[in-house]
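INTERNAL TRANSFER SHEET
From: sequence group
To: structure group
Subject: Protein transporter SEC24

Please process the attached sequence and return the structure record in the designated field. Keep the field labels unchanged so the import script can parse them.
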Amino acid sequence: MRWTSPPTRREISLIIFSLTVFALSYNIDTSIRLVGLNKLQNRLGLGGGRTTIGPDGRRPLGARDSLEKMIYGDWAWDAEEIAGDGVERSQVKGVGRHGAMWVDKREVGSLTSPSLGESTVDQAFWRWGNDIPRAILRKHVPGYTVIDNVILFNGSMNIVTDENDLFPPLQHMVLSTDLNVWKTITPQQARERIGSFGGRIRGVTWMAADSSPHNSTLFALWRTYSALDSGIDADGATKLAPPRRLIYPYYGFFTDPNPEHADVTTRRQRVVNGIHPQLVKAAFPFMTVMYYEDWEDYHAMQVPFVIERLVVADRSAAQYGVKAQEPIYASAFKVDGASDYWWEPIRRSLATYFEAYGKDAPTTKVVTYVQRQTHTHGLRLSDKDHLALVDALHKLERDHGYEVHIVSNIDEEMSWTERMRAIARSSMMIGVHDSDLVDSMYMQRTPHTTLLEFFPPQTFAREQEVVASSVGIRYIAWWNDQSFSGDKLPAVAHPQDDEAVPIDVSAVISAIRQTVSHQTYLPSPAMASPSQLPPGWIAEWNEANQRYLFIETASGHTQWEEPAAPIAAPADMAPVAPSTHGGGKRRQYAAGQTQAYYAGDNASADSGYYAGGANDANLINQPAAAGGGQQLFTPGLAGENQFQAQQGGQQQPAYYQPDAGYGQQQQPQQQQQPAYGGQSGVDGLTNQFSAMGMGGGGQKQFQLNTINMLTTPPEPMELHRPPPEIRLPPGSCISPAPTAVADPSYQRLTLNAVPTTSSLLNKAKIPLALVITPYRTLDEGDEPIPLVTDVIARCRRCRMYINPYVQFIDGGNRWRCCMCNMSNEVPQMFDWDQARNQPGDRWQRAELNHSVVEFVAPTEYMVRAPQPAVYIFLIDVSHAAVQSGMVATATRALLENLDRIPDEGNITKVGIICYDVSLYFFSMAPGSTDSTMLVVSDIDDVFLPKPADLLVNLSEARPAFEALLGRIGDMFQENSIIGSALGPALQAGSKLMAPIGGKILALSSSLPSVGEGSLKNREDPKILGTSKESSLLQAANSFYKTFAIDCSRAQVTVDMFLFSSGYQDVASLANLPHYTTGQTYYYPAFNAARSEDAIKFAHEFGEVMAMPIMLECITRVRASRGLRMASFHGNFFVRSTDLLAMPTVPENQSYAIEIDIEDTLTTPFVVIQSGMLHTTCFGERRLRVITTAYPTTSNLSEVFASADQIAITTLLANKAVERSLSYKLEDARDYVFKKLVEIFVTYKSSMTAAGAGASAQLALAENLKMLPVLVLGILKNVGIRQSAQIPPDIRAYSQALLTSLPSQLLIPYLYPSFYALHTMPPEAGTVGEKGVIMPPPLPLTSERLERHGLFLIEDGQTIFLYVGRDAVPQLIMDVFDLPNYEVLRGGKTTLPVLDNPFSQRVNAIIQKTREMRRGVYYPHLYIVKEDGEPPLRLWALSALIQDRADVLPSYQQFISSVKEKVNGVGY
Ligand SMILES: [Zn+2]
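Return from structure group:
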């Protein structure tokens, strides 16, 4: 296209506009260029080099090319001219399609930011030299803050100030987390840390720092921000600059993690941020929404950015500002300085978008009914009431000139645009509580604009009321035929999910008519219009002028000004609804347990209320005491309790007793049920606590014991204690059987009492996560998992499987789901004993008495018939593999274990492929001992030479298979080929087992060197210990991810057995097991000539072959409403948001799942259920279901007292590895350390006398006693620890263990076992009731080593037998059969079994060490001499993690650094 005439001014503006939008959108990119790469030039004073765009937004004259000339012509302009003088951009106030509100060019305050279209990229650079920008606080209430000049740098948000007292405590602004760290620093510190220049993020930036989405965020942010312009007028005109961007530091673009490959088939689900995506576009057309990825970009840039103006909202911080019963965002409405018309710009902006304003302004009689009838859960009207209401509304339309909209708030039923257009036109909105009624704030603004909200009788929630009154909308709460408004609202009592919402339709309609047609109805105060008129005056809303006209009724005189001399308002001004219905029939107020359900943020007050009068049906209906204003309408004692509860929210909990010594048992008042009425001086928390206890019918409370970590050394026996008891309310479980509670080794939660709100969870700083080992082996004495063969009962709404935590109702004909409260029919077959063909005993059913149970899955659970198990062995037969003896060991182990391969139904198939740089296939004829080798040398495009008989039925082709295994060693004995075509071999293996799927056991002795997936030696000692080291821990080659995902789709698992004597890139290879639910086994420098090596590999290989596996498994974890599985750790592929694809599942693999609390938990307990749909290796489709239940709590001390340190550690190990991969090893260590410090800080400030001040003690809950040393164990683990000496292969293998070992193996891997053998008690090493008795474990410090002693240290992977140099000859003789210490040699060994009791006891202990844990690992045994080879000695001693080693601190040092951090944190 050519310009045929010079562009008009308007066209130029358009071009510049587009360019600038582009430049702003890519501001990240350009700023990198600007302050990143050109940093050096700037420093050198070269300045230039940025020739791409000149100050006028064009390339400099000399640099323009023909294309540019073609587009722009030979025009030039000055920077100030490009956007004109602003006239053409300013629109007439209050009109225009978009942006009617943005009428002024300059904004409030003195932001340097030019308006959109004026700034150029260059202006983002800021050299401030020594005069580092200081933060300025503009507006603040807890949780909602406007602040200028916050400096974003290198992972933290810095408030630079030397006037600390001008700022509120940091946690009142934002609760820092590791993703969003806030700091206050002095200008001096800032100069040192931040430097003298940086980028500038111009204009107004909003940040939603909540960790869970909420639909209040947008208006809370706007409310906070709008307080900067108290002059917003009734037309919505404002001087505020439009917000440019809204940042969500915690949410990614999508709900699922970033796919590791181009998975085009998965439709990704956008994250829910609490705001309808179209709303932002319509109401905030200038604003860009930025997510975690953008946020991460900024931090990754490593240059400081000054955010000119930041409006930040954080509901967790808002807790410091809200009163009981208020919604958490209520404090946003307390930011001072706001205009009564604060919301008007946004409302008009949206109304303009819908053209519901201006010339198309609707009449005042527009009513919208928001319905949610087709929702399968949640509150609804009965269908009868709904239809009657719709009819009556249509009648209003026909007979009385109303405009009526019936809209649905379900996106699938009605578009957002359609719904919002209706609302924007309306002046009255009605609907059932919970149906997005907050949208009512977009209704047109008239004096009678009203929101009418239906509740189940006796229930109420304030959320909508707070919003409505803040924007000047009248509010009516509705129970059946009763209405409440003004200051006569009911007490807060949240409705249950499926409670009935009856309405008297004729009463509703008459309320609508009264409200809408009552033109002189007194408006709400926010309208800034008369609430009190002198006698004889009325006010009438004038639609055309959008203001009141005042009329003196006697004379007919009218005026715009409000008449003077108001008198007191009549007392009966508020109620709208007919009062004749008051005091009519009322539903009996439910007593007892249900009341305790409502334990949310505001529970303290609620509980206090219920405690006072739970059975008094009248109490709740009593209006507030006249003139009360505040919602303290519960008389007498309950009111007092409520007040105390409110106070309690901001006080230290009562069990803190000043000067009480640590370590002693405290707070006896929590153990008893306090009698109501007689208490005094007991704080609110305790009240609430007791109220809950009472509601739950005497649920035992957790007791928090505080200890001082400085004087409490780690006690290894603690690790063998069970986690804090799960204390469910009585009656939660319908079965008395002990099997109704799952063993924690199947499924455990980091908190055995779940906080009711995410803010409480955030406060505790302990992550909520589930650790599952669902396919755990049975311990000795364990009964097999029961199998249900007849019927599967599931909740028809949430699909939960029936379990011991459901309730039978309706005379046993129905059961109530313990997750979503749905009432479900009991299946007919449920009470029928199919085996005996007679009525059965329901109470004997396995699924009601066992929390771990399997069901036989009927055909609807199958996408295809169950497939047989398939095993394909890929054996490296290159020179290195043969020479190390690996091939011989592997084939022998295979032969020896053929019988152990699961093959109950004689359906298992096997195949074998050998490879060096070619592939060798073997065709085995059934029934014969012959096999034929087929060589494929073309490895670029792998094909199968002959599809028949390469994959054979194990039992049919057994003779050929055995014969082949016996020959392979000889066949390749002389193989001198060096190199590995592992990738092509894997491709061939996966092709061979297609379309069935199964397990590939890949044995590899060297770095893959040819074909797909070939790798280079990237081991570089120079980068070990540096920030680049983590790159060596990531896959070098995308093949290992894409192929892994292909395998996952084809139901193929890969297990890796790695043997190289040199670098093998374990990090890349381990990706295959990682995504396919396999496992990596590593035998560095394997040499079968050492029998220990051969035994270890043969043992582990054999165990893997013999292991029963689950095939074609998909796993899903469900939980009670309000909980959401947020992120997943472990070996699998996340197929959709929460479906874990596991082609085959090995035993004893562990997975960790982080859980978000999305909604306030309102039930006394929650349920989490893992379901694994799988095929057994004998071809039966089954479901394994594991169900656990946990009490909920709104009490922080209970959260701490219920924390499970083992589960927390398991999660942290996973998180550390994940962070080391996505960031750096150092970040992983920082993360884990900071997590620990955060827990201490919050514990100190909320649970101890020290509060925010410094303390000489370091307090923590006794049940978390081992957490610090376990964290130290993570920090010192080979996979994570700071060192420049650890080969990347060793690190990568260790990381694979850290993310897959079950707790039972992981904990000793982090905190090894250490025994003194020479002084062990006489019974140790002998057989007792529970097998071999182990010696008492010692703390992991070399202080316990003695020069004459014999010690055993083991971490589940390796056993060290440490011999002191002064060990007496008799000891050496008894154990090693050698005359003295001198002749003993260190190193890998097998201990002789000698004919003396001591030798036998030591051997028994070693044997037990190898057998006592689940898993296939067979630890090597090393003899370590006190004065032996230094590397071996150092290795063994590095297991003593409480010692100082090199740069790694001792436990004492570590715990003091924790203490320093805890005391030094800027709280
Ligand atoms: Zn359900």
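Handover comment: The first helix runs from residue 9 to 25. The pocket of zinc ion is lined by residues 795, 797-798, 800, 817, 819-820, 822 (CB under 6 Å).
Transfer complete.
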